[in-house]
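## retry 2 of 3
previous attempt timed out at serialization; input unchanged, resubmitting
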Amino acid sequence: MTNGPEAAAEPGPAEREPAAPAWQAPSEVEQRLYDAKTRGDWAAYFEVLGHTELFIADSRAAADAHPGTVRFQPYWDQRTGTPCLAVFTAGMLPAPVEDPVFFSASLDWYARKWEPHDPPWLAVNPGSPCEAYFPTSPEHRTVWRQHGSDAGTCGCSHEHMRLRALHVGGPLHGPVAHGLACGALLFVKNGELWNSMAYHGGGYTHEKARLKEWWGVTSREDWLSTQNRLLQADMVSEVWEFALAVRRSLALDFAGAVSVDHWREVAERVLRHNAAKGAEVRLTPDGVTKSEPPSDAEVASQVAGMRRLIGRIARYEARFRADGVLGADKFVRSVEAWDYGRASGMARWGLGARYCTLEEAEQAVLRAGRAARNTYRSWEDFAAGYVLGRCLHFDDEEFGTWYEEMATCHRILTTDPASPWRNIPWE
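## retry succeeded, writing output
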């Protein structure tokens, strides 16, 4: 093999064999790798590698003992006659088990971190029709960096705001797929495979770090508690649900639209009526307790807050209608969707962090789908509830990134022919 720059992009000896017959690739990434390999277009092959995660395996014990370290674990390859480091794209990963675990890094990261004592060959998806072998000399790694995306290690090298799916290895229809699709807004936002039940995410350490940062989850017990709260819609604000329940009841009573003024007036009456009931006696683990009724000042504050909240919801819904997130004559029934959608994600994040088994994650996904169907009537109904919940929590009526991301993901999921929302019946 020559040593010039052009030769640096050439494959190793395994690619001298005839191309394998056409196959069903797990996802778009593997299909593009296969197509590039079949054409002999190695620049295109590297371009795909440069914009996707490449996973390597290691023992869980080593990962837990040295969480900031990624070890290369080479194997002996008969075709090259040398040690090789095997890397895998997301669609080629096995189902998660307790051990080993996987780490993800960008092609650029591998190019920068490779040491002289590391394996002389890189094996991409070995044993599959889209496999390729590449020398790892400094000159060859320079070519990797020309195509690589500097996403670091244990991070995302793929594009966000995209609908991605597994065509092999992930459910596309049925109850599990329905439960997975309840998390589709978030997975499209992150550019992750929406139907990957056997989920690795960004790799073991990435998923553990994500759960710790965003949820404070650092153990199986934490995960179980959080997962159950989400499945019971116990994290959405009771105040939000109260406001929406008042309007929902009025809409049933009057069989039509409810004006904002009427909604506010009735919500205020209910709040004042509840406050006028006086002290409340409750049976608790500590015995019988008596709570004092709220003061006039507290009731006035609650009423003022409720009137402001109703105004916020009405303004969000007006924007939703203008952007196609909500139908012209529709309103949001409930924001429990925000918990159910996150429950679908939490099941998979817990699996990626090894806080649960695949079976436990699948059962949680099924429960999320059932809970969503019990509350909502359609994907559109569910989606509006999810987006409103997210906006009430994060957006503070700025209509900024927290809202714009969801509006874009909603548009993708309602218009893309491959969207689960267009292919999986709600009921």
